[in-house]
Backbone:
């Protein structure tokens, strides 16, 4: 008991030998060009201190490793480099007067210190702590009902929130959660999962404790499970903790359906997300000169977000002049949002529209935009939103939109499209809004009541 | 006359006296010292604030690509009863007329309820609507038809149970006076996309301004150029929009240019940014003379639109304001704030009874709000326009008993612990209902959100990280949500 307790001081104590030793090293270097005597007398003492601290660290480290929470292979490496480092400090001490050996010992021990430190860090913070790579994104679930419960929902949660202490590298409480058999086996305090019984499953018991409770998992200060994550874990255990079933093979209450839906980044939703967001690849800055000339004409040109070079352009109802058209053309890589509503002459704009391949959102409502111009939209493969209300476009012009895979919403209110002739089945990919909504006037709308009327 | 000139001459001479010289030197030196002491602060302020005094309303980009370009906020001042409109509580009906359980009253404070009140069943009939199965009562027959376009927050919780502070909290993020309103923050962060109209317009109806007064659309410590511009709901929306008789457009232009020139000199002398606000307001007023009559006039709308909204031009009504709001948003106005008064249903009179007056209030807004959402939708504008509906708090599941006696009519007291708000459009997930209250609708059991969470979510839809849009004032950075606010993920998808 007390042994285990002492072991817990290891992560604290390890910093002492590092500090002492680096200070000794600093004194050593300093002594190369400053008066030796004053400094040299310090060096032995620093080395003794480093040695003692290092020895105590090694000892407590050994005690900590007995808890068995850590990956034994990594622990072994860390342990032996640590011990080697301790011995080397004494070697430096005793070789003070043999310059050549001494320098070699110094060099080796510094390298060893770095290795032992890194290994120790990897043990506590996880192996990938020290890396430039960004966190890997969770795989997207396109159809939640067809997703594998464990592989696509449960495991990613465990991986993100639990693996750092309960997997191959570390097994706090002797618990591993990285393989089905380990999850079922549980740790030293009992079974991790008892199918159909959330009350007996330690995993669900622990995550449902208040965060302030000692036993709560994940421990205070570590990234916590979100509300939907706890709910889905509970549901999974209740439904038998299957490792191979699909979501639709398990019973779902309406509440859990909602929870599950939040895990879905369905095709449509992913697209929705991107509707107003910028393309992932950043683009070069658009020509300042062009932007300035457009602004001077009263056209609004603005980055869609303060950290982006992609542009939003609002013609503010002004028909673009020839020079405007030229400027817009130079910005074709950048423009993703174009509001050309209300402009008087649409032909000159249409000429360059086909080149604006990056456009996501396009408003040409309240213009003379007609079937003739619709051809220019054919290749705007990124187009997601198209507002054709109050235009001259007819159902013939809409044929040009058939190949647009990303188009989500098309607005046709007060266009020349004859909705009776329009076969909606021809456009299964996007939502067509025909408008013309009516809010009927109910008799009650205008009657003022002066006594209760509903029973 | 001569006397006056003489006096002016004496005053002028005074400037050259020894006393004046000494006074000026002392104050001047002191001021210089103070100025240099403060300057390190003001330098810093310049770098953090987005305010550009030369062009305070220049359009700016938000932090990330926005989903909504504008907001129409429908504030039902007085606080509508969630129990009659959206929060269906069959259990409450069973307890109708019984004493309120003591557990609900211990340690609680109410605006008017004293002693032990009786429980009060909902007076409305509820049904599920649309594919989402949203519960909406028969008080709102029109809104029920577009249930799938709405997203409900069923467990909004505030900590204020009086109108003025609760309205302030909802609109400015603080229950006390002095903070900028949401619309001001948005205008400060985004500027204006329309040069000829204000970016933040306020329209009131119901006969009263909100209890918190004009501070709910004030700019607080932000430069006053960002405050909401209130338009009249009856007659001309903006007064004196026409040039007076005998004054031509050119004369008007020349006089405003002259005034602005004098103000510019004033600014050069004193450097007070409020002078620049004044200049830009003069310019705005001049430009508004061109575009405002057209945009602000709902008379020009076709008959079927009036039929749809239930509007009658020339009459002061919430419906007229709603239609005007659509026109403003269509013309690039960023934030339109509608306040409707009269939702404070205590049951002290028939107008404030939940089975009489509340029905009339609902009828006055139901059709217009439904029309607004459908009209924006058919114009392809709903995706970019966020609609927010709500009051400043909710109403108790208990009947009000003012001074310990039952009220003359059926009414409910102010209730801060749980009420319903909804949002639509603006990239909000449609058909969601988030949050639940207990069986009696007394308090939130899950999905509790605060006014700050709602503000954070609105800002998010406009492209802002609510924690990063700040203004340095009195030595620290302020933001709309101050130190609180969490994005409501369930609504933003």
Residues:
């Amino acid at each position: 008991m007390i042994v285990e307790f002492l072991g817990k001081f290891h992560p604290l104590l390890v910093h002492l030998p590092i500090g002492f030793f680096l200070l000794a090293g600093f004194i050593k270097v300093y002594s190369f060009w400053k008066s030796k005597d004053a400094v040299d007398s310090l060096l032995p003492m620093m080395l003794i201190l480093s040695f003692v601290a290092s020895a105590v660290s090694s000892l407590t480290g050994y005690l900590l490793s007995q808890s068995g929470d850590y990956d034994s292979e990594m622990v072994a490496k860390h342990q032996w480099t640590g011990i080697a480092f301790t011995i080397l400090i004494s070697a430096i001490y005793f070789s003070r007067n043999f310059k050549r050996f001494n320098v070699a010992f110094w060099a080796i021990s510094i390298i060893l210190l770095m290795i032992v430190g890194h290994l120790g860090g990897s043990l506590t913070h996880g192996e990938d702590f020290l890396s430039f790579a960004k966190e890997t994104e969770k795989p997207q679930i396109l159809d939640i009902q067809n997703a594998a419960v464990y592989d696509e929902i449960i495991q990613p949660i465990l991986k993100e929130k639990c693996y750092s202490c309960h997997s191959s590298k570390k097994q706090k409480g002797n618990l591993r959660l990285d393989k089905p058999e380990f999850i079922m086996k549980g740790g030293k305090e009992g079974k991790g999962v008892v199918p159909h019984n959330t009350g007996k499953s330690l995993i669900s018991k622990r995550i449902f404790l208040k965060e302030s409770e000692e036993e709560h998992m994940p421990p205070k200060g570590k990234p916590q499970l979100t509300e939907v994550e706890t709910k889905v874990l509970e549901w999974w255990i209740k439904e038998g903790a299957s490792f191979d079933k699909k979501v639709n093979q398990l019973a779902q209450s309406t509440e859990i359906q909602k929870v599950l839906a939040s895990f879905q980044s369905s095709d449509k939703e992913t697209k929705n997300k991107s509707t107003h967001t910028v393309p992932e690849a950043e683009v070069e800055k658009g020509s300042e000169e062009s932007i300035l000339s457009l602004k001077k004409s009263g056209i609004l040109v603005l980055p869609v977000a303060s950290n982006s070079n992609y542009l939003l352009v609002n013609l503010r109802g002004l028909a673009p002049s020839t020079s405007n058209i030229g400027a817009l053309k130079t910005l074709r890589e950048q423009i993703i949002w174009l509001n050309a509503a209300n402009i008087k002459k649409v032909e000159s704009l249409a000429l360059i529209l086909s080149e604006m391949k990056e456009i996501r959102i396009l408003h040409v409502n309240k213009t003379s935009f007609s079937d003739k111009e619709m051809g220019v939209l054919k290749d705007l493969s990124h187009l997601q939103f198209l507002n054709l209300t109050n235009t001259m476009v007819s159902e013939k012009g809409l044929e040009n939109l058939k190949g647009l895979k990303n188009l989500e919403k098309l607005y046709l209110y007060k266009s020349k499209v004859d909705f009776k002739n329009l076969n909606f089945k021809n456009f299964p990919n996007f939502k067509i809004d025909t408008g013309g909504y009516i809010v009927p006037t109910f008799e009650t709308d205008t009657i003022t009541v002066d006594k209760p009327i509903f029973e | 006359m001569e006397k006056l000139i003489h006096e002016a001459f004496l005053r002028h001479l005074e400037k050259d006296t020894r006393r004046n010289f000494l006074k000026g030197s002392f104050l001047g030196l002191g001021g210089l010292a103070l100025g240099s002491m403060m300057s390190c602060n003001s330098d810093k302020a310049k770098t953090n604030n987005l305010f550009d005094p030369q062009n305070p309303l220049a359009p700016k980009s938000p932090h990330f690509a926005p989903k909504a370009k504008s907001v129409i906020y429908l504030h039902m001042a007085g606080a509508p009863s969630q129990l009659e409109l959206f929060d269906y509580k069959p259990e409450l009906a069973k307890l109708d007329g019984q004493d309120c359980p003591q557990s609900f009253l211990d340690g609680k404070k109410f605006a008017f309820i004293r002693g032990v009140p009786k429980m009060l069943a909902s007076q409305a009939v509820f049904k599920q609507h649309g594919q989402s199965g949203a519960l909406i009562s028969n008080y709102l027959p029109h809104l029920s038809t577009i249930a799938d376009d709405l997203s409900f927050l069923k467990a909004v919780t505030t900590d204020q149970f009086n109108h003025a502070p609760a309205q302030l909290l909802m609109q400015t993020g603080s229950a006390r006076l002095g903070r900028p309103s949401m619309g001001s923050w948005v205008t400060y962060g985004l500027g204006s996309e329309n040069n000829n109209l204000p970016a933040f317009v306020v329209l009131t109806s119901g006969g009263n301004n909100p209890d918190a007064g004009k501070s709910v659309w004030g700019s607080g410590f932000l430069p006053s150029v960002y405050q909401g511009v209130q338009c009249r709901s009856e007659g001309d929306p903006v007064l004196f929009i026409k040039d007076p008789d005998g004054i031509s457009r050119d004369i008007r232009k020349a006089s405003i240019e002259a005034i602005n020139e004098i103000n510019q000199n004033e600014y050069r002398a004193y450097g007070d940014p409020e002078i620049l606000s004044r200049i830009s307001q003069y310019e705005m007023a001049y430009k508004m003379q061109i575009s405002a009559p057209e945009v602000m006039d709902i008379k020009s709308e076709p008959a079927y639109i009036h039929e749809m909204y239930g509007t009658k031009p020339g009459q002061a009504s919430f419906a007229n304001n709603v239609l005007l709001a659509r026109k403003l948003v269509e013309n690039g106005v960023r934030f339109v704030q509608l306040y409707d008064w009269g939702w404070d249903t205590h049951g002290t009179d028939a107008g404030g009874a939940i089975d009489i007056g509340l029905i009339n209030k609902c009828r006055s807004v139901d059709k217009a709000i439904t029309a607004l959402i459908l009209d924006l939708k058919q114009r392809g504008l709903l995706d970019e326009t966020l609609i927010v509906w709500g009051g400043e708090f909710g109403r108790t599941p208990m009947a009000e008993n003012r001074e310990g006696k039952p009220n003359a009519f059926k009414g409910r007291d102010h209730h801060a612990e749980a009420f319903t708000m909804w949002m639509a459009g603006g990239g909000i997930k449609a058909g969601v209902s988030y949050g639940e209250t207990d069986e009696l609708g007394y308090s939130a059991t899950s999905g509790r959100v605060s006014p700050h969470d709602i503000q954070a979510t609105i800002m998010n839809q406009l492209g802002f990280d609510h924690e990063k849009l700040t203004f340095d004032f009195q030595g620290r950075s302020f933001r709309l949500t101050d130190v609180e606010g969490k994005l409501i993920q369930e609504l933003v998808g």
Notes: The domain at 54-237+297-492 of chain B is CATH 3.40.720.10 (Alkaline Phosphatase, subunit A).
